[in-house]
Each structure stands twice: as structure tokens, then as C-alpha cells.
Design goal:
389 residues; mainly beta; 5-stranded mixed sheet; globular
Amino acid sequence: MSLIKNTRPLLLIFLLCAFCADSSRLEHNPAESYKAVNAFSKLTFSRPVDLQHPPDNTNRIFVVEQPGVISVFPNNPSASAKKQFLDIQSKVDDEGNEEGLLGLAFHPDYKSNGYFYVNYTALNPNRTVISRFKVSALNADQADPSSEQVILTFEQPYSNHNGGQVSFGPDGYLYIAVGDGGSGGDPDDHGQNRATLLGSILRIDVNKQENGKQYGIPADNPFAKNTNRYREEIYAYGMRNPWRFSFDTQTKRLWTGDVGQNAYEEIDIVENGGNYGWNTMEGKHCFEPKNNCNTSGLKLPIHEYGRDQGLSITGGFVYHGPTLSELKGKYIYADYATRRIWALEHTYLNKPVNTQLLEADFNISSFGVDQENELYLCAFDGKIYKLQK
């Protein structure tokens, strides 16, 4: 697949079926009362796929641009200029729709050590690279491009399903979203293969160097010190293409959207050691090539939706921002292709209630929050938006 700039869904999957059956879901669609407004009207970006803020109380916004650039600017609606924090375009392969510079995470001690981590795809061979860089000692708005330390790399058999999110959890470990390696239907069965990193959420300790690697394995990782040759980095598995995960800052739960194949998109709450079913299951249903599938031991999604609602989920955040009190505690997410934005209210005691907030006039590639937990939407029209009543 060649990279199409701004004209096709970033996460469009091979051979998507637009005529598949509806999912079983609890859907509530009141008259839409929300709108999306341009948060920084004087700024534009090249295919923004991530938005982050550093834990240093400087109230800055960092936007990841898929070709290989990270931009920085003050969190001010009147901001008129952005600065180039990092440019690694020469290292990044973004030829495929789902390739490129895909994720950014600031170290919890960034204020003192200046470390940040990125996830990008590279060539020769086709691979995912997780690297650490350091901010310049002379300029807080400029990274040192020569400071790259490769932490982890693994080959990608196809150009799609690269995942791409990197984020530090409340436990201080680095979590990494990894797709099943691509093509369609997981032809190599990576999702259920614990001997590969593909199709997983990984968790590593970047504050240690162990066994010749630039990271350590947390002692409570589910396969730490196993004797079955399972990858010890795995935190959870059975993922197809986890596109955007986040931690609820109140409950500490890990939420992810997982892009479906032919019929269903899903939302999972990810737990240590969980098997989320792919490619035995798609959503809560047996995946077509699998006969007599067994759901024993699988973690089924908390919510799914079918092709009448969308075909490429963009995972979001549980909202804890200061401006939209009626959304507090609800998971805000979207579908890239149909441009719908929803709020999912979920507890373990009650059935989920899913409310459509609006149907946007732009494709939502990612979400992000600032240091006050206000929510932003990254759009493939090159702009950053906020929700308003």
C-alpha cells in the first residue's frame, strides 16, 4: 500500500467488509449537542498522529507528525508558531498508510533527565524501532538528534498493523502497542503466539539494563522467567492492531481500541496476562476462518460496534478535563473512517452505555491530553481540535 496524504483512512484495513452484520451493543444517540473547534487556529501539521505534554509543568504541547517530525508550541489558543523539536525523517519509513513516526512518551522524570521515547517504522529490514532521545541541554524546545539510543527493535512482515503507542504507566514502566504484523486475518497467527512480540501490549523497565538489553523485565510480567520461550516483554496479547491506548488517571485502568478485520471494532480494558482473542475472535464473535472457536480463557471486549457504525476505531481517553463536566469518567473515542465520536460509560456493575457526541467533518487519527487533562483531537486535515458544547 502506498501512502496517501490526507485522502484515505490512516488505519484502513485490507479487504474491509462494508456489508457485515451489526454488532450487539447498547447504543444511545441523542440529538448531538457537541461540536469540534479548532484549538490552535494558526497552526497546522503534517498528518498528526499523537499529542503529548511533558511532565515538567511548562504547559507545552508536542504533536507527532507521521513523516518523522515532532513539533512543540505553547498551550495557548493564540499560539502563532510551532518549533521543530525533533526531525528524524531520514530514519523513518512512512510509505505505508500505517507506517511512520507513530508515538511519543516522556519519561516520568523528564524534568530532571530529559529523556523521551519514540516509536517509528524503519527500513532494511522493515521493522519497528523503540528509541530514547534526550532534550538539548541548551534549548528546552529542541531535542538532541544525536542522542538516540535504540531500546528495542523487531521486524514487521507487512506494512500495516504496526500499533505505535508508547506510554508510561502509573507503575513507571513503558507500555508499547504492537499490531499482529499485518496483511489480513493474521496469516501467521501472531496474535496467539506468545513467542513473538507481535499482536501484544508490551511492558518493559527502561530504568534497567539486563541480559544484554537496554531494558529490564518487570518481575510481575506474566511470562517473566518462563521456560516456554514466550517473550517476557509481553503484558497482554491477542491483539490485532491496538490503535491508541491510555491509562485512566483516576482508576489506573488501561483502555485500548483494537481495529477489527471484517465485521467488528472493539474496546478492551487491558489486564496483566490477558488474552484478548485475536485471531480466534473478532470482537465478541468467532472470526470467520476459525471453526468451533473456544472462548475459554479469553478476555472479551467491554464494547464493540459493527460496520453500520464504522470500520477503524481510534482509541481515546477517559475524560477528566476541566470543561465538560458531563463527560467526566466516560471514555471518549472515535472511528477514523466514519468520523463519529462517542462517549462510553462503563462500570463492572452495569452494562456499558454508548452515546454518540457528534459526527465530525474530519478524520480523527488520535487523541491527547494536556497537563490539565483537557482532551484534544488530532485530525488528518492537519489541525488539532477540542470538544465544545
